[in-house]
Structures are given as structure tokens and as C-alpha cells.
Amino acid sequence: MPDFSGRLRASGRVAILVSRYNELITTKLLDGALACCGEAGIGRDSLDVIWVPGAFELPVAAAVAADSRAYSCLIALGAVIRGDTPHFEYVAGEAARGLRDVSVLYGLPVSFGVLTVDTMQQAADRAGGSAGNKGHEAASAALRTADVLAQLRAHHAQD
User: Fold this and answer.
1) 36: Cβ–Cβ under 8 A, 6 or more apart, which residues?
2) DSSP letter string over 90-157?
3) Domain coordinates in residue numbering, the chain
4) How many CA atoms lie within 13 A of 31 on its CB side?
């Protein structure tokens, strides 16, 4: 019985989708994702960075990127910080749902590197602060999933 496990390595072109909203935080998430891609041996010439206005726009950009069939995985980065209105729940929930839908529809790893936090300090902590860099973690998850899917597809192509 085969045992499949994704490794942190290059397995094709990568798109990193980044929200401009809360850009102070999202640029740090992007730095973490780029560092992870470098650790995996992915050169900058094999990466596309796609900026969108906010987290709510990440799913539509992901859908177009996925439909291009140009990428082995997508890394979605954003920061949704709770305010005094229910806007937070709508944006965070729809971003998560939309990105999941793209992933399942296209059979493509789409990592959820969208921070959903109560305060700017919590966001900073997760964008290279005391809680690590969730952009790096999102990139690692996407790359490892892309690798394991490539293994599965190759294995089943032999059948």
C-alpha cells in the first residue's frame, strides 16, 4: 500500500494572491510566503504575485488563476480585522468559502493565509511577530499539498 506525503519542494508555477487592504500586514505575509517558496527551490521567475483590493476579492482572482491552468497551487493572503459591525463575518466567511470552492472545483491547492483576528496587534503577531508568519505557513501548506497531489496523480496515471 503506497504512502503519500507532500514535501516542501517546487512542483510547478505558483501564484500568490494578496489583499491590499491592511497592506502593512499583508506585505509581511507575502514576505513569509516568498521565503517559504525560496526554501522550496522556487525561483522568483516561477512566481506570480497578484494584488487585489481586499480579502473579499481573493476568490474571484483565485478562480481566474485556477482556470488558466498555469499554476500548481495558489496561496491566498489577507488580513480581516474585527470591527464594530458584522462586516468582519461576511468578508472572512465569504473569502474562506470562495477559496475553498475554487480549490475543490479545480482540484487545485488553494491555501487560506487570510488572518481573521480581533486586533491589529494579533495580526502583527501572526505576520512575522510572536506567533510566526502565517504567510509562510500558508505557502508551506499549498506547496506540500501540490506535491502530494502530483504524487497521487502520477501514481494513478500508472493504473
Assistant:
1) 8, 135, 136, 137, 139, 140, 143
2) HHHHHHHHHHHHHHHHHT--EEEEEEEESSHHHHHHHEEETTEEHHHHHHHHHHHHHHHHHHHHHHHH
3) 30-119
4) 12
- Alpha carbon distance 56, 43 (integer Å): 29
Residue 53: partners with Cβ closer than 8 Å, 6 or more residues away: 19, 20, 21
Catalytic residue status for 156? no
Q: At what angle do helices 58-67 and 87-106 cross, to 10 degrees?
A: 10
Torsion, CA 84, CA 89, CA 92, CA 96, rounded to 10: 170
**What CATH number does the domain located at 30-119 have?**
3.40.50.960
Divide the 159 residues of the chain into consecutive groups of 10 and give the mean pLDDT of each group: 85 96 97 98 96 98 98 98 84 96 98 96 96 97 96 86
Of 87, 136, 155, 156, which is the active-site residue?
87
